[in-house]
TrEMBL record:
This is 8-amino-7-oxononanoate synthase. It catalyses: 6-carboxyhexanoyl-[ACP] + L-alanine + H(+) = (8S)-8-amino-7-oxononanoate + holo-[ACP] + CO2. Its EC number is 2.3.1.47. InterPro entries: Aminotransferase_I/II_large, AON_synthase_class-II, PyrdxlP-dep_Trfase, PyrdxlP-dep_Trfase_major, PyrdxlP-dep_Trfase_small. Keywords: Transferase. Residues 55-393 form the Aminotransferase class I/classII large domain.
Length: 412
């Protein structure tokens, strides 16, 4: 039975309500599910074509580093491709313990638990939100945190992006209505679409004043920000004011996998109660070894953080000089506001034609009509790469009418 039966058929779903999908159909542009691989040093091959990779989260440029890939290859040969089971049962290798120790040392927490993906690390947060607890979540939090919160048994309260004054009011109201409820504040450290930072000083103050626990998803900022690369909390000098960190190895640490780091009793509790840990095969050997190697390199080579942050600054300045709006970005995630879905699709294609791969982002990741081209830079990008990205934005922008045509004498 493949055809749709009638109006009651649960499979009577399609993508026609998505403005982004409609724009893709109308323009014939396909920004998604393209086949590609990174070739190193900020470049990639997209369906046979060499391009500058300006659309991935490998901020420190470690996923193709020979030291990382060699460590992964060795672990693959030694331990096989998979653990074929969950951590609790047969899925714990010495590498899991080693990585957990390294992450806890790096962040200065009592303990850490490694999870198969960053998404699953955030789903595990559900275990900290019990019946009778109230969780307060920034409206721009990542989908995985949103899902983790939804899976929790407690009540969910959303606050507008980074609106800590509103959050204060909501916390006060909650305390008045339910004085015995446990309270948890949950936020991304660095927001994945806007490239801005959470207001951690205000959040820690609110957590202390209202007796709430604070959970920070450091997926994008751990490895990148702060003098030692420990993330947004170190950037603000507030490492000891965060109760639980979640994070991933898929951005700064060149691998795939997730983690939770915090007090030993919380991490132990999560190991036995978070369903995304208990009921999923553990991180595979190659990914573990890659993560361990990358963590060591990230800590030992601070030039990578400095380089990528400086590149991002130069990228924003260059884009603004061309007349683009890069929003509140202060990090290597630089969203370029385009507007409607059709222009965004055309712009994405024009950039690819100019030899630069970026990310086209539409609703629901951003509000309807506020489509962006999300550009990311890597420590391994050269100054020539940066110039190529900016030249592509100038040429592509002219093609789709976002950048004025050059005056005649400049063309000549
Ligand atoms: N948190 C944030 C803020 C993210 O952006 C992402 C992935 N884009 C994740 C968590 C999930 O991480 P992973 O890709 O390792 O599952």
């Amino acid at each position: 039975m493949t055809e749709i039966q009638d109006a009651t058929d649960a499979f009577r779903k399609d993508l026609s309500s998505s403005t982004f999908v409609r724009a893709m159909v109308e323009t014939g542009v396909r920004p998604f599910y393209r086949t590609m691989h990174m070739t190193g040093a900020g470049e990639a091959v997209v369906e046979g074509r060499d391009v500058v990779m300006a659309g991935c989260n490998d901020y420190l440029g470690l996923s193709t580093d020979p030291r990382v890939t060699a460590a992964a290859a060795e672990a693959l040969t030694r331990y096989g491709a998979s653990c074929s089971g969950a951590r609790t049962l047969n899925g714990t290798l010495p590498l899991h313990g080693e990585l957990e120790g390294r992450i806890a040392d790096f962040l200065g927490t009592e303990a850490a638990a490694v999870v198969t993906t960053g998404f699953q690390a955030n789903l595990a947060v559900a275990a900290m939100i019990g019946r009778g607890d109230i969780v307060f979540s920034d409206m721009s939090n990542h989908a995985s945190l949103v899902d983790g919160i939804r899976l929790g048994a407690g009540r969910r309260v959303l606050y507008p992006h980074s609106d800590t004054a509103r959050l204060d009011t909501l916390l006060e109201q909650a305390t008045a209505a339910e004085p015995t409820a446990g309270k948890v504040l949950v936020t991304d450290g660095m927001f994945s679409m806007d490239g801005d930072l959470c207001r951690l000083p205000a959040l820690t103050e609110l957590a202390a004043r209202h007796g709430a626990r604070l959970v920070v998803d450091g997926a994008h900022d751990i490895g990148l920000l702060g003098p030692g690369g420990r993330g947004v909390a170190e950037h603000f000098g507030l490492m000891d004011r965060v109760d639980l960190f979640t994070g991933t190895l898929s951005k700064c640490f060149g691998s795939t996998g997730g983690f939770l780091a915090g007090p030993a009793h919380v991490v132990d509790y999560l190991r036995y109660s978070a369903r995304s840990i208990l009921f999923s095969a553990s991180m595979p050997p190659a990914a573990l070894a890659a993560g361990i190697a990358a963590l060591g390199i990230a800590a030992a080579e601070p030039w990578r953080r400095r380089r990528v942050l400086a590149l991002a600054e130069a990228l924003r300045a260059g884009l603004r000089a061309l007349g683009y709006d890069t929003g509140d970005s202060v990090t290597p995630v630089v969203p370029v506001l385009i507007g409607d879905a059709t222009t965004c699709a055309l712009m994405w294609q024009a950039l690819l034609d100019e030899g630069v791969f970026t990310n086209a982002v539409g609703a629901p990741a951003v509000p309807e009509g506020r489509c962006v081209i999300r550009v990311t830079v890597q420590a391994t990008h050269s100054d020539v790469h940066l110039e190529r990205i900016l030249d592509a934005f100038a040429a592509a922008g002219r093609r789709v009418g976002l950048v004025p045509e050059l005056p005649a004498q400049a063309v000549a």
